[in-house]
Amino acid sequence: MSRYLLRRLLIAIPSLLGISIVLFTVLALAPGDPFGELATNPNVPAEVGAALRAKFGLDDPIALRYLRWLIAMLRGDWGFSFTSRIDVDVLILQRLPTTLFVIGSSQVLALLVALPVGVYAATRPYSIFDQIANTLAFIGFSLPTFFTGLLLILVFSINLGWLPFVFRTDIAATGWHWYWEQFRQSVMPVAVLGLAQGASWTRFVRSAVLDVIRLDHVTTARSKGLAERVVIVKHVVRNALIPVVTLVALSMPAVFGGAIVTEQIFRVPGIGSLLISSILANDTPVIMAVTFVFAGLVILFNLIADILYGWLDPRIAYR
Amino acid sequence: MAGSILASRIASSGVGGAGRRARQPSLALETWRRFRRHRLAVASIGILALMMLAVAFGPFFWRVPINDIDFSAQLTTPSWAHPLGTDDLGQDLLARMLYGGRISLSVGLTAMLVAVIVGTLVGAIAGMSRGGIDMALMWLTDLFLALPQLPVLLLVIYLFRDTLKQMVGSELGVFILIVAVIGAFRWMPVARLVRAQFLSLREKEFVEAARALGATKWRQVVRHILPNSLGPVIVAGTIDVAVAILLESTLSFLGLGFPPDIPTWGRILFDAKDYLDIAPHWALIAGGAIFLAVLSINFIGDGLRDALDPRKVM
C-alpha cells in the first residue's frame, strides 16, 4: 500500500508541473507589462526603466523566468497583494479554512443524499421511487447554483426571515451559541452546493449499482443465504463505488467552480470570493496564487481518490 | 454481462421492439423511434424549439428597444404594457430577455461546436496513432481535466479581455473570448470518448475489410470509423450546450462576462439580485429561463443517449 501511495504521489508531481506551465504560459502570453507605465512616464529616465527590468529579470528567456517563478511559488514566496497590503500567502491562509469547511460539508451532504437514494433507486429499477428520484436529480443538476442560491435567500431570508444571508467569521458568541450561529449561516451555502452535487452523483451511483447488481458474485452471495442488507452493502455497493470515485474525482474542478459562485452569493469570505474581488481590483499576484491553490486542491482530491481506490479494490494497489 | 439491467427501460424496449427484420428502417428513423419513447425528451424538444423561435423571431414582433429607459415604470410587475415587467431603470424585460436569449443560446451552440471539433480531432489522432503521440495527447487531456476550470477561465478572461475588446469591439470580442475559452475547457470528455471508440472500432471486421480492399487511412477514418463513433459524441455535444450556457451565465452572473449594456440571461440575473426583496419577478424570469433551457437540453441529451447508445450511462 505504501509503495502504491508513493507511486501516486510521484505521478501527481508532473500534473502539478503541467498546470503550473499552463498558468505561467497564460500569464506570459497576456498583454500588459508590470513596468508598462514606467515606459510612458516622462519622469522616469529610460535607463532606470531598463535597469529595473534587468533587476527583476523581465528580459530573460521565458524558460528562465518560468523556473524562477516556480521556485518562488514552491518556497512560499507568493508575492504581495496590491490591494490588501499583506503577503499573499497570509491572505490565502486566512481565507482557506472557510472554503474548505463549506466545500467539505457540502460534499458530505452530497454523499449522504447520493449514496442512499442512488442505491435504493437501483435496487428497485423503474419503480415510482426510481422515476421520482431520477426526475428530481435531473432538475437538481439543471438548476444553476447561482439561481438556487438566490431562491433560497428569497424564501428563507427575505420571506421567512429564518436564516442570515451573509456569512460571517466574526460571530460574537461562545460555546453552543457559536455552533448554533455557525450552523444557521452555513445551512444555505452548504445546501446549495451539496444538493447540486448530490443530484448528479445520484445518477452516477444508480447506474454503477445497476451494472454490478446482476453480476454472478452477487447471485452467489444471495444464494448462500446472506441477508439482503449484507449483500447490498458488502457485495454490491463496495464494487459499485469504484467507478463512482472516478467520477467524483473528475467532478472536483466543477465543485470548486460551484464554490466560487456560492461564496459570491452568500458573501462567504473564502478564497473563491477573494478570487472574484481581486479580479475586479486587478490584483494579479492574488489571482495567480488563488488559481494555483485551486489547482493544488484538485490534485489533492485526485490523490485522495487514488487512496480510496486502493482501499475499495486492493488489487489496484498491488498491481 | 448478459443479465445486466439496462439503465433505462426505454432503451431496452427500443432494442427489443426492432425485431422485424423484413424491412429495415434507416438508422435515423430507428433512432427517432427510440427517441420518441422518452416522453420528457420529446416535450423538451418542443420547449427548446419554442424558446429558439421566440429569441430568433420575437424581436421582430416585440419592437420595444432593450435600452429604453422609463423612470415612470421602474420595477413594475408583469402587465399588458410590459408582459414580463421592468427592471430598475424601467427597461422592458421581455425585450431584454429575447435579446439575451439570442446571445446565451448562440454562445452555448458555438462553444459546443468548438469543443466537439477540437475533441474529435484530438481523440481521432490519439485513437489512430499508437505509442508516443497517443500517450502525449492523453496526458494533455488528463492535464486539462485536472485544471480548475472556473478559476482558470476567470484568469484568462481577466488577462485578455481588454486587448480583444480593442481589437474587435466590445460585444464581439467578449463573445469570441467566451466561446473560445469555454470550448477550450470542454473538449476533453469528447476526446476521451472518441479515442475509446476509435480504439475498439479500428479492430472491427468491417474496418479490416476496408483496409484489405486498399482504403487509405484517411478513407478508413472518414468513411468507416468516424460515422460509427458519432453516437456518444452527439450525446456529449448536447450536454456540452447546456454546460456552456451555464458557464456563460455563471461568468455574467459574477460580473465578468458580457458588459452591462448587453443583457444576457446571466447578466439580467446579476442585475436582479440586488432587488430580490422588492422585485423578485425580475430574478425569477431570468433564472427560470436559464433553468428551462438547461433542463430541456439535458433531457434531450438523455433521450439521445437512450436512442443512440442504449447500454452506456454516465
What does this structure look like?
Chain A is mainly alpha-helical and 319 residues long. Helices cover 79% and strands 0% of the residues of chain A. Chain A contains 14 helices and no strands. In chain A, helix 1 packs across helix 4, helix 1 packs antiparallel against helix 13 and helix 8 crosses helix 10. Chain A is globular and about 85 Å long. The relative contact order of chain A is 0.13. The model of chain A has no long low-confidence stretch (mean pLDDT 81). With 314 residues, chain B is mostly helical. In chain B, helix 4 packs antiparallel against helix 5 (132-146), helix 4 crosses helix 11 (230-253) and helix 5 (132-146) runs antiparallel to helix 8 (187-201). Chain B contains 13 helices and no strands. In chain B, 71% of the residues lie in helices and 0% in strands.
Write the layout of secondary structure elements.
The complex is a heterodimer of chains A (319) and B (314).
Chain A: H1 2-29, H2 36-40, H3 46-55, H4 62-74, H5 88-123, H6 128-142, H7 145-159, H8 175-213, H9 216-223, H10 228-250, H11 252-266, H12 271-280, H13 284-312, H14 314-318
Helix pairs in contact in A: 1-4, 1-13, 5-6, 5-8, 6-8, 7-8, 7-11, 8-10, 8-11, 9-10, 10-13, 11-12, 12-13
Chain B: H1 9-16, H2 27-36, H3 39-61, H4 93-128, H5 132-146, H6 149-168, H7 170-184, H8 187-201, H9 205-212, H10 217-228, H11 230-253, H12 265-272, H13 280-308
Helix pairs in contact in B: 2-13, 3-4, 3-13, 4-5, 4-7, 4-8, 4-11, 5-8, 6-7, 8-11, 9-10, 11-12, 11-13, 12-13
What labels describe this entry?
heterodimer, A: 319 residues, mainly alpha, B: 314 residues, 13 helices, 71% helix, 0% strand
Largest interface: A-B, 60 and 52 residues
SSE order of chain B: HHHHHHHHHHHHH
Q: Any idea what the radius of gyration of chain A is?
A: 25 Å
Question: How many H/I helices of chain B?
Answer: 13
Low-confidence parts of chain A: none
